[in-house]
Amino acid sequence: MTDTTYSLNVNGADRPVAGAWLGESLLHVLRERLALPGAKAGCEQGECGSCSVLVDGVLTCACLVLAASAVGASIITVEGIGPAERGEMTIVQEAFNDAGAVQCGFCTPGLIMAVHDLLDRHPDPSALDVREAISGNLCRCTGYGRVLAAVEVAIERSAR
Amino acid sequence: MDVSVPRTLDEALAALADRPDAMVLAGGTDVMVGVNAGRQTPTAVVALRAVEELRTWSVDGDRLRLGAGLTYADLLAPDLAAMVPALAQAARTVGSPPIRNAGTVGGNLATASPAGDTLPVLLALDAELDLASVEGRRTVALRSFLTGPKRTQLRTGELIVAARVPATRPHQEYRKVGVRNAMVIAVASVAVVVDADVGVVACAMGSVGPTPLRAPRAEEWVAGRIDWGTGVPDAGVAAEFGRLVAEESRPIDDHRSTAAYRRHAVEVLARRALESTLAGVARAEAA
Ligand SMILES: Cc1cc2nc3c(=O)[nH]c(=O)nc-3n(C[C@H](O)[C@H](O)[C@H](O)COP(=O)(O)OP(=O)(O)OC[C@H]3O[C@@H](n4cnc5c(N)ncnc54)[C@H](O)[C@@H]3O)c2cc1C
Ligand code: FES
Ligand code: FES
């Protein structure tokens, strides 16, 4: 089988991918070829949301994107969601931290992406909007209570 | 090119003719699951994501043309949802927000799962599908397009371009039962479309047969038992309609549910869907 060579635009930078198999998912390429392990491989079938990224501004499961077909798209991962300075966090990330919404942390990058996407579209979402927005993110640890609390904190702080 | 990302429909059809082995990729929410699990090993891919004309919809007289590349999120846009509210209801039940952002109508049609959520609605609307290949174009009724579980009339090298449905039938409803509200494949589902002008009720059900099914006997029975001037059915009609629809279902036991529960669910869903669509007719007549 022939190897595929292409370039992806990830977090604002062009990243060459060489010698990949054409069936590789964006999730696999990000984690295994581009050293961006923020998006997590939970189920690789669209069920858990731990791999969520933005593709051309649209919240997407990276595991269901064929990497080679994402050429020309702008891809933002959790590594690129925040301020450029390393170590600085977004309001959403800080809210998760402060509200105790991070336990093992496996689901956290996906939830951060989903909550950013929600607040970008609806700065003042209803409780139902919040639940719907995170309905594709599975968390084994928190029981979601702290996650919902973190979103409340993020909404409050964003409004300031 | 092993992976092509054409920008026009003609380019896509040419790419497919060039590589008959190619896997057609729209939102990837069905095919990538198989690829990730190693059940499918594509040797070539034609990705439709950049084909803008597949992502459009338009109204021509009383017909609505839905491009195959419309996503579930697109179907939720208020102007589309006003014309085909049951399709928006169905779209809202699919997966989760990221799945709705990626998954398309064309992918749902081509996958032809008995549980595909757009299918009962499109079937109750007597949808016609526009298909195209380099050989030419043809139109096929959805009713005959779906030939079995995950089986369709689609030929190698052929793409679904659009589905065409009536634009002027606002009294319609889709109801679905599953184990929770999000991220759930239908255990049973029902679509009801009422055309009060000509006194016709159309009903289709999902997950209770090898393909989504219409309920022709129940449809014919109920049409004569509604006062079409007011939208009010005779006493007991909605309940009997539910029973008749359930009689026409052909459910099986599987890992998601039992045949007996599915038959029961279809009865309840059909009754409620008829009641609420007729209530809509009554409100419109009173206004
Ligand atoms: C987590 C998850 C939850 C889901 N939940 C639901 C649900 O609730 N209800 C539901 O109905 N489905 C559900 N699905 C299934 C899937 O999302 C839908 O069937 C979706 O509509 C598929 O569309 P797609 O664009 O992603 O198709 P793809 O995966 O890209 O393609 C699917 C098939 O269609 C073919 N195809 C795509 N477009 C065309 C075209 N224009 N012409 C010809 N062939 C074409 C492809 O070759 C492939 O065989 C779910 C999937 C996942 C992963
Ligand atoms: S890894 Fe993509 S949704 Fe679970
Ligand atoms: S914190 Fe462990 S899975 Fe969510």
Give the structure's gist in a few sentences.
With 160 residues, chain A is α+β, with helices and mostly antiparallel strands.
3D architecture notes:
The complex is a heterodimer of chains A (160) and B (287). Chain A has five helices and five strands. Chain A folds into two domains: 3-78, Ubiquitin-like (UB roll); 82-159, [2Fe-2S]-binding domain (DNA polymerase, domain 1), CATH 1.10.150. The model of chain A has no long low-confidence stretch (mean pLDDT 95). Chain A has 160 residues and is an alpha+beta fold. Chain A has a five-stranded mixed beta sheet with strand order 2-1-5-3-4, with helices on both faces. In chain A, helix 2 packs across helix 5. By secondary structure, chain B is of the alpha+beta class. Chain B folds into two domains: 2-166, Uridine Diphospho-n-acetylenolpyruvylglucosamine Reductase, domain 3; 171-286, CO dehydrogenase flavoprotein, C-terminal domain (Enolase-like, domain 1), CATH 3.30.390.50. Helix content of chain B is 37%, strand content 24%. Chain B contains twelve helices and 16 strands. Chain B has a five-stranded antiparallel beta sheet with strand order 4-5-10-6-7. Chain B has a four-stranded antiparallel beta sheet with strand order 11-12-13-14, with helices on both faces. A three-stranded parallel beta sheet of chain B has the order 1-3-2, covered by helices on one side. The longest helix of chain B has 28 residues, at 259-286. The chains are: A alpha+beta (160), B alpha+beta (287). Flavin-adenine dinucleotide sits between chains B (23-31, 33, 48, 68, 93-95, 99, 102-104, 106-108, 110-111, 116-117, 154, 159-160, 183, 185) and A (45-47).
